[in-house]
Amino acid sequence: MIRIDEIYSNTFLPLIAKKHNHAMHWFDPFGSTKLQDLCSAPAINNMNNDAIRYLFWDQEPLYKKELDCILPKFDSVYDGKLVLVTSEMDSEAVEYANNKYGAHHLYYFFHGWAALDWFRGYDKTFLIDPPQQRQIKKTFIAPNRIIAGERQHRLEMLYYIFKNRMWDNHISCPLTCPAENINIYDAVQVLADKYPDIEQVMISAPLPMQFKHEENHPMHSCWLSLFDESAESLLYLVTETVATGQRLHLTEKTFKPIALGMPFIIVGTKGSLEYLRSYGFKTFDSIWDESYDLADDNVRIERIASLLTSLNELSDSGKQDLFEMALPIIEHNYNHFYNGGFEKILWSELQDVITTIQDGGI
After folding, report:
1. How far apart are CA 30 and CA 111, in angstroms?
2. Which of 61, 68, 123, 157 would bridge with 338, disulfide CB 3.0–4.6 Å?
C-alpha cells in the first residue's frame, strides 16, 4: 500500500534523485496548480541543458489556460526536457502540452492509489449495513459541494434533478459555492442559453440542501461518510471532477460507492465506465441502460437524468429488486477494491512508469 501523502517523497523522489541530471517537480499543498506552490528536488542549479525534469501534475485535471500560465514560466526557470506525469488518459490537454511545449507524457492512476489509501480499513468496521441486509427507500444519494467554476456540470445535473422534482432523495447542494464563493443563482447563468429556465428551476428547489448532522457542506474527499443515507439508496450518483472534453479522468469519488457497497452512475467524461472496467471493475449494464457513457457531451447528462427519472419512478419494491440483482456486481467490486486485485493492477502500471524513469525518462 502506498501512502498517498508520501508518494512523492517516498516513491518517486528517491528513484529520480539517483539519476544524474534528473529533477522532480510537484505542487504542494495537495490540490494546488499554482506556480508559487511548485516544489523542486534535487537542487536544480547543478542541472545542465540536457536535464530531464518530471512535473507531477497528477492530482488535478489539466486545463489549457493553466498550462499556458505554468509551463512558459516553468521553462524560463528550468532548462531541459519536460515530462508531464499525469493521472489522465487520452487527454486533449496532454496533447496540447506536447504540441505547444514539447512535453512528454507519463501516466499512472494517482487517484486509484489515493482511494486505496484514504478508504483503507473501512472494510474492517461496522459503519454501514451489509448490502444483503439493506432496505432500499431512496433512488440515489448525490453529494455536491463545489458547484461553480470548472464544476458547472454539477449544476447541469442538479437542474435536471430539480426540474423533475427528484429532491426527495439524499442530495446536498449549497447556496454559495464554497470554493468559488459565487451564489448558485449567479453560477447558473453560464448555462442560461442552453436552459432558459434554469434560474427559475433553482429558485423552486429547497436550497440549500444538506445531509443530516452537516453544516456548511464540509469536505469529505479523503474518508467515507454518509453511511445511513448510502445504506437506504439504490445507487450513488457520482458527479466527477471532470465531465466534459476529451480525457479520461476519474478520482476517489468514483470509488466511494464501491467501498460503500453500492451501484453507481458516473457523471464523467465520455468512456468513464469503460475506463473503470479496464481496471477490473464491473458496471451495471445488465441492470440498467449504461449507454449514456458513450454519449457526446451535449447529451450525456440529459441521458443520465432520463435514466435517474425512470429509476425514481419505480416503487420501493422495484428498487429493492434492482438492488438485489446488482448484489453480485457490488460484491465483485468491493472484493476487487479491498482484497488486492485493484492494487495489483495499479502496481503493475506504476512499475512501467518506474522502468521508464530508470531507462532515461522518455
Report:
1. 12
2. 123
Tell me the fold of 120-338: Rossmann fold (3.40.50)
**pTM: predicted TM-score of the whole model, two decimal places:** 0.95
**C-alpha radius of gyration, the chain, whole number:** 21
In this structure, is the dihedral angle defined by the CA atoms of residues 96, 273, 265 and 59, taken in order, positive or negative? negative
Amino acid (1-letter code) at residue 19: K
Decide if 326 contacts 287 (C-beta within 8 A): yes
- Give the tens place of pLDDT for each residue, 272-325: 999 999 999 999 999 999 999 999 999 999 999 999 999 999 999 999 999 999
E-assigned strand segments in 5-136? 22-27, 38-41, 52-57, 81-86, 104-107
Check residue 61 and give its pLDDT. Answer: 96
Q: Answer for the pair 23, 16: CB distance below 8 angstroms, yes or no.
A: yes
DSSP single-letter state for residue 292: G
Rounded-to-integer distance, Cα 217 and Cα 278, Å: 33
β-bridge partners, 100: none
Q: Which regions in the chain score pLDDT beneath 50?
A: none
Instruction: Please give the share of the chain, as a percent, with pLDDT higher than 90.
Output: 80
The H or E element that residue 333 is part of is: helix 316-338
Neighbours of 86 (CB within 10 A): 25
Domain positions in the chain = 4-107, 120-338
Among 260, 235, 252, smallest CA distance to 326 is for 235
- Burial (0-12, 13-18, 19+ Cβ within 10 Å), 154: buried
Torsion of Cα atoms, 211 then 215 then 219 then 221, to 10°: -30
Q: Which three cell numbers stand for residue 264?
A: 453507481
Distance CA 314, CA 310 (A): 7
Which residue from 295, 292, 228, 247 is spatially nearest to 266, judged by alpha carbons?
292
Helix (H) / strand (E) containing 357: helix 341-358
Q: Does residue 29 have a cis bond before it (omega within 30 degrees)?
A: yes
Which DSSP letter does residue 191 get? G
Phi-psi region at 97: left, alpha or beta (left = phi > 0; alpha = psi -120 to 50): alpha
